[in-house]
């Protein structure tokens, strides 16, 4: 609830939903590549631009299904 007592996720806001990752979706791939390169930079490592290598590694990653939890921490 907001400070006025109305539910936070009410119109016109939309509740977020998890995306299904697709390594063939250029937007998804660009995000992973950018995030990985930023992380590498933070640790003083050289980034990578080989998209095919990234795609091959992503196919090996098994991510458990996201299960949202109820937060009663208000």
TrEMBL record:
<comment type="similarity">
    <text>Belongs to the ubiquitin-activating E1 family.</text>
</comment>
<protein>
    <recommendedName>
        <fullName>Ubiquitin-activating enzyme SCCH domain-containing protein</fullName>
    </recommendedName>
</protein>
<dbReference type="InterPro" id="IPR035985">
    <property type="entry name" value="Ubiquitin-activating_enz"/>
</dbReference>
<dbReference type="Pfam" id="PF10585">
    <property type="entry name" value="UBA_E1_SCCH"/>
</dbReference>
<dbReference type="InterPro" id="IPR042063">
    <property type="entry name" value="Ubi_acti_E1_SCCH"/>
</dbReference>
<feature type="domain" description="Ubiquitin-activating enzyme SCCH">
    <location>
        <begin position="2"/>
        <end position="69"/>
    </location>
</feature>
<dbReference type="InterPro" id="IPR019572">
    <property type="entry name" value="UBA_E1_SCCH"/>
</dbReference>
<dbReference type="GO" id="GO:0008641">
    <property type="term" value="F:ubiquitin-like modifier activating enzyme activity"/>
</dbReference>
<comment type="pathway">
    <text>Protein modification; protein ubiquitination.</text>
</comment>
